[in-house]
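Listing S7. Sequence submitted for prediction.
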Amino acid sequence: MSKLKITPFDPLNLHSHFDSERPTVFLLQLIRDFPEARCTVVPPCSSDWTELIMWLPHTTDEELQSLAKAVPQPQNYDSADFLRKRSMLCFEATGIEARINLWELNNPFLRNGINPGFGVAFMNQTLGLYAAHLFSPEEIEDYIMGLQGAMISTGPNHNPVRVWGDAFLDEHDGKEDVSESGVVILPCLTWSPNKI
């Protein structure tokens, strides 16, 4: 399994931790202007390394530390009316879970190259934590295949009539999703590298 290295950073002094050649600092500064949780992928430069930024303004420092230790895993979720199925990248921790819709992340989210792995910058109002997930080439390949496998029958690939049938869908027609306690769903912001 991947190795995990967590490094704290000061959310008010981002330049002391992040490479100025990448747009990470700019995106961290921009994303923290949102009043609610958000995420974004740092557009790839020449590096194989991918970075995901998670802005969680309403989490405690303890919750943020717990999330930073989690290895994100793909999970699929049906909507209450069963018409939609979403693949989520889930960070499960004690008392809190953060989910990101995999279909909203820039594609490809991960690449297998010289430096296989990815970094996640977690940030609330008072604390920043950078979790580096380091993989061997074989491990990152398996991880990427797991993400792709989860997405094969979700999003635009989901065909609810084929899966559930008309009678089942009629029975659940009009049902609306209910928010789950302790679950934060982070909308993903997308950026054009040309505009950063």
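Caption to Listing S7: primary sequence and predicted structure tokens for the chain studied. The first strand starts at residue 3 and ends at 9. The CA atoms of residues 9 and 16 lie 8 Å apart.
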